[in-house]
Specification:
The chain has helices at 2-5, 13-30, 73-85, 87-107, 157-223, 230-263, 277-280, 291-294, 299-320, 365-431, 437-471, 480-484, and strands spanning 113-122, 139-152, 325-336, 348-357. The chain is an alpha+beta fold. It has one domain: Outer membrane efflux proteins (OEP). α3 (73-85) crosses α5 (157-223). The longest helix has 67 residues, at 157-223.
């Protein structure tokens, strides 16, 4: 194409093209993108997390890797399987690829659009593809080897479009990180729930045996003629009531196992549990860290911030539509009529030009598009602020719950110990003839619900640690490879 540009018929054409190119390039380099530059919306972050004590530490529980929260090999293997096979994670990864390609498409707007075109025509009095307007030959041939167009991004429309696309891509990446964190926590919570249900199942079976032993004791008295049938019936009813809770607990365990299977991307099936995590592993200490650092850790907050960035760039795109667009065009090829002359030198064709186009009257369309872009930015800003507030709430709720569950457990442990002592004393008094059957049944009936309540609190103490890890944006220092493969 350079050779063709250097073969004009008019000597003054060189200076015209050169001046045009220089003026366009100068305009391009001094141009600036219209619309606001992105600034993350301000937030009134609390000085400390409610429930975290008088002062927060720099170190945070979120700095730990997820496999260090509960050091259980079975749970670790389950999470690794979920990281590899979970469909939500795979869907999020597919969305990232979509956004990545959208960024590539938008970035292509920076470059010239070069095409080729070949046309062979046959007609009468045609002039569109003729080298001269007075030809009467019915054949026409056009071969365009390089047909180029390029928009000069004076007002920043392309730059703002790229900015918006990149922000959407980064938002989708943070969404995927959030999905990975959620899946890890969901697997952990479901696994702990199974352990808690198994603990309650063992308590129910022990209670069934206890009521069965009391029933046999009453039957011996009844058969010996020392008591009526009423104590036997009461004890049998209590035994049957507790026994009826066993299949319900087994049902809940099976349903939770199926939930884990879904998270693992597998068909429903049983989940092996080898560790008694609720009994053997105490809840770890959890420094919350500074609230302001939460804004840089939580994937949902980071994703919301990127959506604000994208919406801010969208305002610039809408504003750029008010201004004219400048473009460059170039053509190189051959135009021949008749077709037999295509190889001759006088059929060479080339052109270099510019275009200038802009809106004159749109009936309020451009104004409405700009207002829409501003409204989208306002919505994204409010969503970001709400997401941050929800994050502060999640951390606070988890910290408060952790503190209160510890207090509840201490009192429930004492209640179980006292009720267990009461059962032993009641049985001893009954055998010695100093207590009625009502005293024995009452003591046993009081023991069972306190044991169940303590088991539920033991579970909640572990679940709230997982919830706090999620609320703090745990694992934020890990790379994607580390997330997928525990070291």
């Amino acid at each position: 194409m350079t050779e063709l540009v250097q073969r004009p018929k008019a000597a003054g054409h060189y200076s015209l093209v050169s001046l045009l190119a220089i003026s366009v390039l100068a305009t391009f380099f001094i141009s600036c993108a219209v619309g606001p530059n992105y600034r993350r919306p301000a937030l009134n972050s609390p000085a400390v997390f409610r429930g975290a004590g008088a002062a927060s530490q720099q170190a945070s529980f979120a700095d730990l890797a997820w496999w260090e929260v509960y050091k259980d090999d079975t749970l670790k293997d389950l999470v690794k399987t979920a990281m590899a096979n979970n469909y939500d994670i795979r869907l999020a990864a597919a969305r990232i690829e979509q956004e990545r390609e959208i960024v590539a498409q938008t970035r292509a707007l920076y470059f010239p659009n070069v095409n080729y075109l070949t046309t062979l025509t046959y007609g009468k009095n045609q002039f569109q593809y003729s080298p001269s307007s007075n030809t009467k030959n019915p054949e026409g041939f056009l071969a365009s080897l390089a047909l180029a167009t390029w928009e000069v991004d004076i007002w920043g429309r392309i730059r703002r479009s790229n900015e918006a696309a990149r922000a959407q891509y980064l938002a989708s990446y943070e969404v995927r990180r959030g999905v990975m964190l959620s899946v890890m926590c969901d697997v952990s919570e479901s696994y702990l729930t199974i352990l808690g249900l198994q603990l309650q199942l063992n308590i129910a079976r022990q209670a069934e045996q206890a009521f069965g032993g009391i029933r046999k004791l009453f039957e011996e008295r009844f058969q010996g003629g020392d008591a009526s049938k009423l104590p036997v019936s009461r004890a049998a009813a209590d035994e049957a009531e507790v026994a009826g809770q066993i299949p319900e607990l087994e049902r809940q365990i099976a349903v939770t196992e199926d939930q884990i299977s879904l998270l693992l991307g597998q068909n429903p099936g049983s989940i092996e549990t080898r560790a008694k995590l609720l009994i053997e592993t105490p809840p770890p200490e959890v420094p919350a860290g500074l609230p302001s650092a939460l804004l840089e850790r939580r994937p949902d907050i980071l994703s919301a911030a990127q959506r604000v960035h994208s919406a801010s760039a969208g305002i610039g795109v809408a504003k750029a539509a008010f201004f004219p667009q400048f473009g460059l065009t170039a053509l190189f090829g051959k135009i021949s009529q008749p077709l037999s002359d295509v190889t001759s030198g006088h059929t060479n064709a080339w052109s270099v030009g510019t275009n200038f186009a802009g809106p004159l009257f749109e009936g309020g369309k451009l104004v409405a598009q700009k207002r829409e872009a501003i409204a989208v930015w306002q919505e994204a800003t409010l969503q970001y602020q709400q997401t941050a507030l929800s994050a502060f709430r999640d951390v606070s709720n988890a910290l408060i719950s952790r503190e209160k569950y510890a207090e509840i457990r201490a009192k429930q442990t004492r209640a179980v110990e006292e009720n267990d002592t009461g059962v032993q004393l009641a049985l001893k008094r009954y055998r010695q003839g100093f207590a009625s059957y009502l005293e024995v049944l009452d003591a046993q009936e009081r023991l069972y619900p306190t044991q169940v309540a303590l088991a539920e609190t033991e579970l909640n103490q572990r679940l709230v640690i997982v919830q706090l890890y999620k609320a703090l944006g745990g694992g934020w220092k890990l790379s994607d490879e580390q997330w997928m493969n525990a070291k």
